Amino acid sequence: MLKVYDRIEWNFLHSMLIRVEFSFHWVTLIMNYVESVTYSLLINGDQVGYITPGRGLRQDDPLSPYLFIICTEGLISLLKEACSVGELKGIKVGPMTHLMFADDTLLLGCATLSEAAKFKSILDTYESWSGQLVNAQKSTLLFSPNVSGTPGQPSQKCWA
Q1: Where does residue 145 fall: left (phi above 0), alpha (psi -120 to 50 degrees), or beta otherwise?
Q2: Residue limits of the Reverse transcriptase domain (predicted)?
Q3: Cα–Cα distance between 153 and 136 in angstroms, integer?
């Protein structure tokens, strides 16, 4: 993801806190905390005003990684739904479609045009909901040596 903490939409965070069943009290506390941030502007060493952001999480805040993980539940839900209705198959280790660690995500599936298109659609949906952006410069499409023919040509076209 691109600039993971800067882009989290507060409405999306609020929805995800409710989805993972935080109580109304905790949702209110967390959202008040997240939305209370202001940044001061310094020009030539003089404070000249404040900026109140409309989205994002604080970079050095110990709570931010946990809130980000809660937000990734949205992406996980989209992947699970696609798998449950047969749009994604995963790999043979089990019905595995994804692995996540912090802001790194590994998507696993068949080298077919339909699965590549579904992964792209899921990521597009997650981007529009959460405000996150996939960092294309840090993204790679890899194929097993067992893929026959020209590995991944149809799948790679979905990502262009």
Answers
A1: alpha
A2: 1-160
A3: 17
pLDDT confidence of 28, banded at 50, 70, 90? very high
Tokens of 116: 């590549």
Burial grade of 116 (CB within 10 A; 0-12, 13-18, 19 or more)? buried
Q: Per-residue pLDDT tens for 97-135?
A: 777 766 777 787 777 788 888 888 888 888 888 888 888
- Pair 49, 40: CB distance under 8 Å: yes
Q: Is 7 exposed, middle or buried (0-12, 13-18, 19+ CB in 10 A)?
A: middle
Q: What is the DSSP letter of 2?
A: B
Task: Round to whole Å and give the CA distance between 28 and 12.
Answer: 14
- Could you please report the per-residue DSSP string of 45-109? TEEEEEE--SB---TT-TTHHHHHHHHHHHHHHHHHHHHHTTS---BTTBBB-EEEETTEEEE--
